[in-house]
Amino acid sequence: MFVYNYKKKINLIIYRFYTSSEYSFSKNVHKSERKKYEKYGSIVCEEVVPGVKRVSLFRPEDIAHVYQSEFGKIPNHSNSVAAIGKYRKDNSAVFKSGGVLLENDEEWSKLRKKLQKKLSKPQDIVYYIDKIDKVVNQFIELCGKNKYDDVSPLLSRFYLEVMCLVAFDVSLDSFSSEEINDKNSITSKLIEATHDGSKVMMSLNTGFQLWKYFDTPLYKKLKKTQNIIKEFAVEMIDKKLKEINENPDYNSGCLIENYLRDESLDIQDIIAMASDTIIAGINSTSYVTTYSLFHIAKNENVQEKIQQEAEALIPQLDDHMTVEILKNAKYTKATVKETFRLNPIQSGIDKILKHDTIINGYFVPAGTNVLTQNQVISRLEKYFTEPNKFKPDRWLKDNSDSNSKSINGFAVLPFSHGPRSCLAKRLVEQIMHIFLLRVIKIP
């Protein structure tokens, strides 16, 4: 028996979803999901595409239950980028699989264990501090020379430059006038391909997915974007392989070189990882950093506290960034956490239940898509004091606000949780901490 909360009203949700009236998917997703929560309650079922039902969870306790029920098992995620998976399957000469972001079951588990060796521990990412700091200072220098009404395009360039140094030990000179002003430059093409690909994916994931059966116009556009990213990744890996063959004793320490030296990894899987690094770096991290700057700009008290912390930790502008500085940047870290609460990289985690599960008294069978509605939860008074206010202090252990609620660890999951948490979580946080400390310190 398949039992859902508010089952009699499911058809209403389906109808309005497809007519894009009350529940619009493409714009303000969390607001649309909030309406469902207010109307139907903390557990809701809907048919997101024909024949595919999804259960949305609006209670952190239920989210915790789902994660805990997976303990000791290989968790599966619903494929929100399935079209990229099809693209890689169609290009099997280059890609062995969909990659660690797309695969499930044993294929995912084996790949994850191999790839996480170079990213999962704090000491794995310390090596990249100087490289990151160098690009941050280049970003600051560029902003000091020119006035920009919108820094988000520059942040895309910043993260592309950082990720290429981390992954390939290669600088693309992303901030040069030649790269910025030439639409056909490699950096401009990569950024455009990544942004366009993300927009197309949103459309391909909704409605009738005809692209699974033949190349629709939108899918052809996606293929074009992925070809640009794939060709760049292959070129970078070929160059790195040549360097290794010419000088086998030298190791630059970059991520992809470490993978190439691991004989247990297939080069086709490394190409997928390199492609994912570019896509996630340009899209996800630049998005959340833009929002972080937005909130800091609107809240002068937050800006002042970060500046005071930066002044104390980095007295001189030319002081080197160190592990100790980052360890003690507590308010900066809280600011990043608060940004992830209000503007997470994704609104929730889309999972596939591997076993029949009872959720909040309702039986949900194996194979059901379950979406954790963290962005909605993060803005509910029930779980956060003044939820729509940007208050980094709520994350500090010595928070003096007596009205502040204790935070359920499953209310905010910007990087997911458990075995399928984001591989680059520590790296992304480290980049953002360095970036904010340097940028906000400037008088």
Automatic annotation (TrEMBL):
Highest taxon of source: Eukaryota
One Pfam family from the record: p450
Keywords, in A-Z order: Heme, Iron, Metal-binding, Monooxygenase, Oxidoreductase
GO terms of molecular function: heme binding; iron ion binding; monooxygenase activity; oxidoreductase activity, acting on paired donors, with incorporation or reduction of molecular oxygen
Cofactor(s) required for function per UniProt: heme
Residues annotated as binding heme: 422
Signal peptide limits: none
CDD domains (alphabetical): CYP24A1-like (cd11054)
InterPro entries for the chain: CYP11_CYP27_families, Cyt_P450, Cyt_P450_CS, Cyt_P450_E_grp-I, Cyt_P450_sf
Entry similarity comment: Belongs to the cytochrome P450 family.
Protein name: Cytochrome P450
Organism name: Aphidius gifuensis
